[in-house]
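[Solved] Which block belongs to which protein?

Original post:
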Amino acid sequence: MIPAIDILGGRCVRLLRGDYAHPTVYSDNPVEMAARFADAGAKRIHVVDLDGARGAGDNRALIQAIAGRDDVEVQAAGGIRTEERIEGLLDAGAHVVVVGTAAVREPELLERVARKHSGRVMAALDLRGDRPAVQGWTESEPLEIETLLVRWNHLPLAGVICTSIERDGTLQGPDLIMLARVLAMTSLPVQYSGGVSSAGDIRAVAAAGAAAVVLGKALYEGRLTLEEALAL
């Protein structure tokens, strides 16, 4: 189980289905939130720069401050579309860098950085229906899921993060059908995100074969404590 910190305008927020217009703010201090997660026993944190994801600024300094901790691994995501940005985050202490838009639109870049930093790069498969969403989920790409996974399967990636956008932030349960479909197409480790709200949901995602679940709103809304989730 990996807790998530999504940063928008320097604050820790959650979005509903990727809607930037109505964020729910949970903390004005993402670095402090990361410390709380680490103190509670988290071994890794998923940190997303939402401003960077849609190309409207960045929260690089905050992500670097979190990644610089020595008591928790960070997988950094959001607006990471250049080799320079990837290497900057890795140099700053990120254990893994998650590439989304560039993984879909720039396969040569993904292949280059994946081979250069073997096991340190993940690809984000953010799905709205049957199509990958890019640019902070503001645009959809006319590519089949299978096309992307066939392309990614031969790369030395750390894995794939699969997110159901329709379920994200809803607490309505995971999309196990979508997850099963993705798992059937790849041998890469797959992390799942979207709609998880209970211990039963976490168990169902694990039983489906996911390597990990990324948990956000359920933690912030008190549906589960981090200690309970980690115990699962």
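(Second protein starts here: sequence line, then its structure tokens.)
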Amino acid sequence: MVVKVCKTISILMILMLFSGMNYLVAAQQDVPDFEDAMFEDDWQQRAEEVNEGELHILQPRPDANEYHHHSRLKITQQSLETGWVDMVQCHTNLDATSALQIVFTLGRVRDLRISSRSKINRAWVEKNTVQLEDISEGSRLCLGLKTRALRINREKIILKNGPFMRRFLDGYYPMRMSMRVEYPEKKMRLLGVKPEGITERIENNGWLDIDVRFEGRLTTEISFELEEAQ
């Protein structure tokens, strides 16, 4: 498939997670004319190699310049009753652009706030969105919120996140996703993590860490059961 590149295009990077949609939309950026782009080395081969959504687990990269979505979730006794989970969500190395917004699905998030930011000129919360302006390379943004992330079915509890993705036009590009989940180990027992192949580390004091580099669409599913049911 050959795509004609115009002088201005819109970047679309989508991240859908935590039982709701969370996506980022960047403003237009200048790019070379299509005629100029045709003469770039191996441009057609690179276009043919663009991932169209199939999940590929990748090897970690030693440098820290790649986009990184990382979050920390805390499941409490109240979470087990309501499904709402406390979360800190951070984005590192966002694409440098003039404007970008992070959009959450209405009804799936509350108490949304900006905790910190760097190399982002302006940032503010507007209803169920976070608006960003003048983003430079090496940026970082952290948010605090509550998300309705748990699916509770009798004794079984599922924390299903995704799909995570980094999307540009019709292609999907590499990104790193890491997550730490804190849960009450005296009330919950971990059953497993999907999909297979992602790196996980379990600590005895009620922590679970997930770290994966991938391209395409990634959905994770963490299953627990209530200890009282045994």
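Accepted answer:
You had them paired correctly. Confirming on the second one: The longest helix spans residues 43-48.
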